[in-house]
Each structure stands twice: as structure tokens, then as C-alpha cells.
Amino acid sequence: MSNSERTLHLNAFLMSTGHHEASWRLPESNPHSSTDVRHYQNLARIAERGTFDSVFFADSPVIYGNVGRRPVGKLEPTVLLTALAAATEKIGLIATASTTYNDPFNLARRFASVDFVSGGRAGWNVVTTAGPDAARNFGIEDQPSHASRYERAAEFLDVAGKLWDSWDDDAVLADKAAGVWVDSDRVRAIEHEGKHFKVKGPLNVPRSPQGYPLIVQAGSSEDGKDLAARYAEAVFTAQQTLEDAQRFYADLKARTAAAGRDPKGIKILPGIVPVIASTEAEAKRLEQDLDDLIKPEYAQIELARTLRVRPEDLPLDRQLPADLPDEDTIEGAKSRYTLIVELARREQLTVRQLIGRLGGGRGHRTFSGTPEQAADAIQLWFENGAADGFNIMPAVLPSGLETFVDQVVPVLRRRGLFRTGYTGNTLREHYGLERPLNRYSGALAGSVRA
Amino acid sequence: MSNSERTLHLNAFLMSTGHHEASWRLPESNPHSSTDVRHYQNLARIAERGTFDSVFFADSPVIYGNVGRRPVGKLEPTVLLTALAAATEKIGLIATASTTYNDPFNLARRFASVDFVSGGRAGWNVVTTAGPDAARNFGIEDQPSHASRYERAAEFLDVAGKLWDSWDDDAVLADKAAGVWVDSDRVRAIEHEGKHFKVKGPLNVPRSPQGYPLIVQAGSSEDGKDLAARYAEAVFTAQQTLEDAQRFYADLKARTAAAGRDPKGIKILPGIVPVIASTEAEAKRLEQDLDDLIKPEYAQIELARTLRVRPEDLPLDRQLPADLPDEDTIEGAKSRYTLIVELARREQLTVRQLIGRLGGGRGHRTFSGTPEQAADAIQLWFENGAADGFNIMPAVLPSGLETFVDQVVPVLRRRGLFRTGYTGNTLREHYGLERPLNRYSGALAGSVRA
After folding, report:
1. CATH number, domain containing residue A217
2. Substitution target from A29, A106, A143 for chain B, most B beta carbons within 10 A
3. Does the pLDDT of residue A280 top 70, yes or no?
4. How far is the alpha carbon of B414 from chain A, nearest alpha carbon, in Å?
5. Which residues of chain B make contact with A110, given a CB cutoff of 8 A?
């Protein structure tokens, strides 16, 4: 596989015992794994054995839904990924953090620190955090509006970028004889003053190995896509059909070009929840066994909350009610709302069936079959303008990741679609992305980053 | 050494190339160590070999003073300590974090996460962060007043404690058969509403191995001592003389008792900057070599800022001016201000001499001599009501820490003052402190923590 060929990118989206909400109930699962760093170190090593580009953790500063339902209560991702950095050598480490409930100075510094500690393997999944429950953990009664959250996110990214550029790459002279540690002209205040933030700077850590962490985005609303087009270098998205995925892919690449960026500089990775076995029938049986462990009373309440209706409006054996709120009135996770409603309507699912589909992958595409079939499904989307790679979301962990790495990855490698070994050392190198120029000193090298 | 005997506690206060401001200029020093995780992993392993209770990093969300002077730009401590957790097994890990420039929800969660990842070795040095420069990195033009910062710190600690108690220790049932992961009655909202914070909770991570991280405090102003008396379990302090240290020790133990706590539950550790060699003359020579590398023009400007005067008011070869501002007007680091002025007046130091003393240890007690002399100095304070242990601040790293561990620790062990091996696994166990009861469910066990 030469460097000039287009390469598949694979991210392992990790979650305690797996993405299937009932995965923790399997005999094999460790239900205390959500706070067990050894569990995650084992998963990261498996993903690294499979030469995945990265591992990734979702996050919110709140517990959503019923605490009894499944393992909730998670380690903070920048802490967890730092622990994984020590247990791995090459794989990228992507942490989710909210622009609504953090300060740019502290968060920019934390990601720069993870980038140093990991030798250039840090990524930041930028989220705006939907929902009033999160707001109430930060003294805010009503969540900020969707538009306001995305406006703040854009300014947050501007401030973070300025802070990451506040030290030139070669600022540290370390001139022992003269007693000058840093050239003070190459470390500057950023003097940012905007609508949401006023930050003087400079950052209190030098420019990190990657310059910036890899910027990842995962919301697929209009605001989310616009933010991604301006800033994101990788996008995680939930797409159920090839046609929807192609439409999203073409739309986002076009928006990225319209924002003045090279569309190759944004990698689009739809989520897929694979349940793999040596025969299709066995895979379907595994999937059914998991779905049979779902307790619908938990899921019914959560679905009602997402759809902004009462649980009693969602009888288990009927389809969704016709009179659901319009997406435009949703201030929460807009794209997830739309995806769920469209899935239920398109496939005429009962609430019980919809809960089964969501329980398996929370709106992401589920796939059950053989390793060859999984590779076919991946190849089809990759070669038909629907994906630059995939966000692999094993239903059960660690077994689902092990099966994917040991059985699907070899097929992808044989077909020349996926790397057989790491060729780079940083997360940006794995994704084939440039190290960003410094906006202040980049001009000296003949080019300025906008 | 039996468990009932009083035991010396040693913390290694680590800082890039060492506490002496010119340490980075020595031929042996790596001037890029401030962002090199391997440097710190090496230091933590040396301290663990010396059975230190803990390692510790100071921190501020800002660069103070001239960036050219010495290695500035530091890794964020919770990230750095997580990386050290992976490289060590027993030693405690204390990170500094500001209550003025953090949110309780995020910070409480991060410390709980470090506590999980380290197996119960996390500590939090609670600081309120002086100075307008830090404020300006968070959109605030003038720093909050000293009193307001300490008021917020106390409420911050209350909120954090409630969040750490929001899950009962036995909340996770993991009942696979019934499909109930957690007993939802044992995870509760905290519904905190105070002057500075409104936080609903619960925390989104279970109660951590230590319940709470070890709470450490380092300010020695009146407000700082009152905060320590109410909350702190270990106190780092700068004391220059036995008499001052005894006065501070007695005062803080009395305040702790007055706050309704057992005075044994607060360990007082004065800082000491040891420069150790096989003869006293050689140690003095080492110290002088370091002092000769100080560039007074950097230090003069910083001293002027601390004393709230102009640099030209501080001629290098004269004593401090008589008309300095009164401590009561200082809104910054009050206790440091007083310590510097008293040191200069007591010893009638010129500005140049004062700079030498401060350059060596930033107001902490410097000590140069043989290993036996160092052990004598430590024993004298430990046995005469001045200290429960020491905050060891090597002038040069790693060599100063190695010398202390290899030459002073064996003397302390021979004298029966210090442990020969770890007897516990958690930071609280090293300091001989209880795991806090849960304020909500502790009542069930017959006792409630206030």
C-alpha cells in the first residue's frame, strides 16, 4: 500500500463493557470495568495490535438516564487517555471535552499536556453538550441554546488555537551560557477579546509535538456540520444507509471546501456496531441474545426524553406517534433526534423494535455477519464516497474488539485497504494530516494558517 | 518502627531541573525536562525507592515573571501525575489545582479519576491562585479579593466533598440477573445551592478508592490557615526558623482542634531545600556555584512585583526600602510577602543577598551540609513541635533527589524516624489518615462526617 493511495482509517470507540446497553449482563463481562484502568489498557493494546488509527471515548459532565440501566460513571477522558498513553506506543488517543462547560485556557493546556505525555498522539472530540441536566451541574438552570453553544464552540476553538500558537516551536533556546531559557519575543500574549471569551495568554506550556491535538467533531446538525467544515480534521457520524452516508459525505466535503480548506483534510468516519461470527447465523444469534437482555422499561423512558414526549405516549408494541415535535424546536442533540425518528419511520419499527436497534448502537449502524461480510460492508462505503474510514463500536468488550482485530482487520489488509503496520508516530501522521503551522510565526516560513 | 510511633512524612516537591532558579544552567541539567514525562517518571521512581509518602507539583494557570529566566511552561499536574501513576506502584501523587479558576464538578471528577487510575494515590493541593495575571487568562480584569477567593475555596471544597459522597461505596450492585447495575437510591443529587456555586449532581463517577483525594493546603495567611484547619490533611509551609515553625505548628494544630477535628489528622510539612555533599565545605561550594549562576536582573523585577514597588526602588547592593506596603493591603500571596520582608529585615540582607536566598528556594528554608547534618536538622524540627515531616525541595534534579534518597534517607531510617518500606497502598495510608466516611450513607454505619 503506497503512501499515495487512499487509506482506510479505523477508530475504536470504547465504552466499558461495550456499546450494546445489555453487554454488561453477559457472563463474560466485568461490570466494574467502567472505572478499571487495566480494562481500558487491555482494549487499547488490542486496538494497537490491529494498527487502528486511534481509540476514542465519548463523554458528558452528567449522568444521562437511569443509573441502574448500564455502567455509568466514567473516568474523565484526558486522565484515562494519559493512562493509556503509558500502556501503548503508537495508537492515537482521542478524548471528548465540552466547549460549553470548560474554559479555553485550562482545556487547551490539558490537551497540550496529553500531547506531550503521549509523544504527539492526542486528539480532542469537540462537543457542545446538550441538555439541561448537564447545565445544572454548572449552576445554569436552562441549557444555552443550540446556536449559542455552537457559536461559543467556534470561538473556543479560535482561542485554543491562538493559545497553542502562543509559543513558537523554536521558542526554547535553552542557552545555558547566556542564562536565557526562552526567547521572550517568541512567546506572546494572544490578547483575545471576543463575544464569549477574553483571554490574555500566553499558554503556560510550550507548543506540543503535534502543534494542535487532532480536532474531531461528532455532531451532525447544520450547526455541527458548519463547525466541522471550519475546524474538524476527523468527523464521527451516525449514518444508517449508504445513500444517507454518501449525502452526508458529499455535503461535508463541499462545506469544507467552501470554508477554504482542502476536503482531504477532513476524514469522515461513520459509526458501525459490528457483531462478528464465523457464520451469519451465529452472528445473528449473538445479536439476538444481546437484544433479549435489554430491559425495555429503561429504554422507553430515555427514548421519551429524547423525543420530548411522555413515556406513556410510547406503547412498546406500537409505532412512534405521528405528532412528534419538529426538529427545529429541539435545543438538544438535534441530529440524533432526526436519525431516530427517520429510522423508525423508514423501517416502520414498533417502539420495542426501535429500542432493540438503539440499544445495540444508540442510533449507529449495526452490522452482524462474517468477517468477509463485514469487510465487504466497509469496502462498499469506503469506495463509494460514503466514508474515509469507520468508527468501530464493538457491541461487547473486549471480545468484540478482539474479534474485529483478529478476523476483520486481516481481511482488510489482504485487500490492500488498511495498513499492515504504523508508518508514523503521531495521531496526525496516522490520519495523513499536516502538523498545523503556527499562525504567528508561520508567516516566517512563508505561510500563515488562517 | 511500630505503627503506634509517630512517623516522619516526606514529600518530594518536584520542579523541572530543580528548585534553584539557576539549576537549568548546570552542565548536567536537561533544560527541556519541563515537558519531558520520562524525566518526571525517573524522579518519581527515585522518590519511591526512598519510600517517600508522595510527590507533588505546584501549579498556576499562568506564567509568572520573565519566561527567559528559567524553565516555565509546565504539564498540567493531573495529566502529569496520571503518567507517573503508570510508572510507579505505591507513592502518593499530589497535584495543585485552583479553586478560583476551576468548576467543582469537573475538578472533583478529575481527582476521582486520578484516584481510580492510581489505585488510591491521589492528593489535591488546594490553592486560590493569587495575582491579576492569572485572572486575565479567564476573562477577569482584576483578581478576586483574597477574602473572596478563600470564601469560594471553602464552598468549592464543600461541593467537591458532596460530589465525592454522591455515590455510596456499595452503590454498584452489578446484578446481571435482575438487570440492575446500580441501586439508584444509593446515587443521589446533591442539590447544592450556595453563594458561589449551584450544583445538582450526582457526580458521574463512583466513589473513588480513597473516598476523597488527600486534601493539601499550602497558603499560610490567616485565611489560608483557617481553610487548612477546616479541610486540610497535609500542609506545606515555608518556615525559616525553628521558632517560627513551632509557632506555626502550634497555631495550626490549635485551629484544627478548634474546628472540631483531631489535630493528628493534619500533617504539617515545612519546605526545605537541601544541598547535600560529603563535607559541609563541599555543600557550601555547590550552593555558591548555583547562586553564582543567578542573573539578578530577572530576580530584581520579580521581587519588585512581589513587594509592589518599582524595580528601580531595589538597588542590588542596598537593603530593602523602609517604606514597603503593609501586608494588609496585599491581595496576592500574603504569607509569601511577609516571609520575604521578614527574612530580609531579620538577616539585614542586601537585595542581591536576598535574591540569592530566594533563588535557592523561593522563600523556603535552604540547608547545605552533610547527610548527617541534614538528618539532624530534620530530627530537631520533627521532635520539637515544628514539623510532622518535610516537603523536600531539591535544588537540582535529579541529582539532589538521588543524593537525598541515597544518603539522607538511610540515616533517617537508622535513627528509626522513617519507614523502611511502604506498609500501605494508598496515599492516605502513607500519611496515617482515615478514609473519610460518606456524609450521606455514613450515618448507616453509625457516624456522620460533618
Report:
1. 3.20.20.30
2. A106
3. yes
4. 36
5. 76, 78-79
Do the chains contact at B76 and A113, CB–CB below 8 Å?
yes
Residue of A nearest to B39 (CA): A117
Write phi, then psi, for A103 (nearest 5 degrees). -100, 140
The DSSP code sequence of A65-104 is S-TTSS------HHHHHHHHHTT-SS-EEEEEEESSSS-H
Q: State how far residue B136 is from chain A, nearest Cα, in angstroms.
A: 6
State the ipTM, two decimals.
0.93
Would residue A126 count as lying in a domain?
A: yes
- Does A362 have pLDDT greater than 80? no
CB-based contact (8 Å) between A421 and chain B? no
Alpha-carbon distance B130 to nearest alpha carbon in chain A (angstroms): 16
Whether B52 maps to a domain, the answer reads yes
Residue B2, in any domain of the structure:
no
For residue B101, which residues of chain A lie inside 8 Å, CB to CB? 103, 105-106
**pLDDT band at A447; cut points 50, 70, 90:** very low
- Residue B83 near residue B41, CB atoms below 8 Å: yes
Q: Which of A92-96, A145-149, B327-331, B411-415 has the lowest mean pLDDT?
A: B327-331
Residue B77 lies in a domain: yes
- Residue B159 burial (CB < 10 Å; 0-12/13-18/19+)? buried
Confidence of residue B361 (pLDDT cuts 50, 70, 90): low
Domain extent, residue A252, equals 9-291+363-441
Among B37, B75, B137, beta carbon nearest to A200: B137
Q: How many domains does chain A have?
A: 1
pLDDT on residue A446: 38
A24 φ, ψ (degrees, to nearest 5): -65, -20
Q: Rounded CA gap, B89 and B78, in Å?
A: 17
Q: Do B106 and A133 touch (CB under 8 A)?
A: no
Candidates B39, B75, B142, partner chain A, best to mutate (most A CBs within 10 A): B75
Say whether A109 and B167 touch across the interface (CB within 8 A).
no
Evaluate if residue B382 carries a pLDDT over 60. yes
How many alpha carbons fall within 13 Å on the CB side of residue A207? 26
Stated length of chain A: 450
Q: How far apart are CA A41 and CA A18, in angstroms?
A: 15
Shortest Cα–Cα distance, A293 to chain B (Å): 8
The pLDDT tens digits of the residues spanning B70-92 come to 898 899 999 999 999 999 999 99
Q: Is B432 exposed, middle or buried (0-12, 13-18, 19+ CB in 10 A)?
A: middle
Residue A218 cell numbers, joined: 461528532
DSSP single-letter state for residue A319:
B
